Amino acid sequence: MSSSFKRRGTKKTSASPGTISPASISSTDSDGLTNSTTSSSSSSASSLQQHHPRTLSSSLLPGTRPWTSNLTVTSFGLREMDSFLFSPGGGGGKDGGGGGGQPLQTLILLEEDRLTDDLSRALCRYWCAEGVAQRQLVMMPSLLPSAEESLQLLDDSDGDRVDGHINNNEGSTPEELHGFVLSLPRNLHLDKLRSKSTTKKQSSSDTTTSFSADERMSNHGREAITAIAEEDEHDEDDDIPDDANDHGHRDPRIATTTSDEGLINAWQYRKSIQVARSGIANQIGSDVGQVAGAGDGIYCHSYNLSQRMWDQFTPNDNTDDDGRHDNPLVTNTRIIDCSRSFITPKFAGDTSLHNQHQGMALFCTLWKHLQSELSTNRNRVIRLFIHRLPVGQGCIAMPLLMAKIRKDNLPVVVLVTIRPWKWLTTPTAKNNNTNNTIDTLLSLRNTADTALSLDSFSSLRTPPPPEFSLLQGILTVHKCASSTTAHYTDTVTNKRPLADRFGVKRDGRKVTVQLLHLPPEEYSKGGSSTGGGDRSGGGHTTTTAIDGGIRKDQHHHGHDNTSASAAGMGCSSFGGGGPSLEF
């Protein structure tokens, strides 16, 4: 019975063509079976991904990182703006210390000062330069056709254009936007990476020329290193100036870990030294290919406002020193013509029809250009920078544009600058009801995820108190959406930012945004700047408390000269004819 069972089993095993005996499978067949199974599973997974669309991952988008609440953020270009206003906190790199960024599909509204736009222009230069450095596309619509026609509209009050804002030269010309592109600040991280690449090339050429071919063959094809060019003992971050260490921080997904870098004190155990001693040639070409574009590991670059990024590239042959045959200022910037959105026949009746018609035309033009760019390359972020948007048309076009961007889940971020004081003083606004004019401005603010305004001290009739001698202006946060703030704030206070007013410092090289705090004694000038013996915000008239670095006024919220407001140290900004600051 046992023999028949064996025979039946043998016959069954041999007769079944699709059955394989475990003993008959060799090692090579096993490997082949494993490979076929793996390939089939991978092919099925790839086919599943092709049939089921998925949300764009931040790993596919240059210059982005994943964030909480399923958000993808990109840097503003200034580290303080990332950490204070846009998703502050987080892991961050070892040199970044945290900081988030502007989430995709969000809108930033920046209100310029009445008499000077230096501070707001500097922030816009940071924002656009970061897009160029990350190999993102910076799109800038031109709302006026040319400078000559804009000058003619100043003298022609009965021109063909229907909106008073355009007649008052509201918007930007192609010449102005081209000059703005040329004024983008110099990328200091690019200079550092270029110097490192040059040093590696020099040391590699000096090392390889000192060995013969026989020595390489005896070392099994590797370069037998006999003399090692030691690196400097100072930290690598010393090559970048102080402002670079303040603003630039690496992406934690790309930055090397502490264990890979080796010991800090014992320089001979550093990774670069060990690689050199092992005889493995450094892959300089791969480093050079990532110098000027995405993949260099820098999430927020550092810039020098006193120098230009354009000077870092050769404009003649449109080729930079790093092997990239393109100039990022040429390939990553687009100046689009949207001036025809405002050339419409006049309507008889209320001027609100003008704003509605032109706002819809502006939305259609912007959406057409976005679709054209995303059809060619969807795997990169588009930064839409609208300089001096007319408020009347903007409150119609921007809600429609942002709703369309979020509906289609597009990798787009928007920065808009406006001049609210000009909207409130135009002839069109004066003819309408004052309440409608203010409602239009508030509607545009409500559309934005973050609404900011900059008040420069240079536009004040009287100088600020001595405590503000180190500052050049005040940055006011009118609105900050809950999706863009999460870590520095408390959920019981509706996720408000760390403060609603920040001090702005501007020197020749950089802009610094900082929290307002009690100044040192040497800046008080021996007492209060408003008269009396107490310092501004101090003395017995005001009871203060320090909570997490924020000075809070517990009793006085009025406009008397002896008290200071909660986050502004006596600064307050009012709308109407122009910004004002009380001390």
Summarize the structure.
The protein is α/β, with parallel strands linked by helices and 583 residues long. It is built from 19 helices and 18 strands.
* Rg calculated over all Cα atoms: 31 Å
- Within the largest sheet, what's the order of strands? 10-5-11-12-4-13-14-15-16
Give the low-pLDDT segments.
1-55, 88-98, 157-168, 223-239, 241-247, 252-263, 277-295, 486-494, 526-580
Largest pleated sheet: 9 strands, mixed
Could you characterize the architecture of this molecule?
With 583 residues, the chain is an alpha/beta fold. Among the domains are: 218 residues; 117 residues, no CATH class. The chain is built from 19 helices and 18 strands. The strands form five sheets. It has a nine-stranded mixed sheet, with helices on both faces. Strands 1-2-3 form a three-stranded antiparallel sheet, with no helix packed on it. Helix 15 packs parallel to helix 16 and helix 16 packs parallel to helix 19.
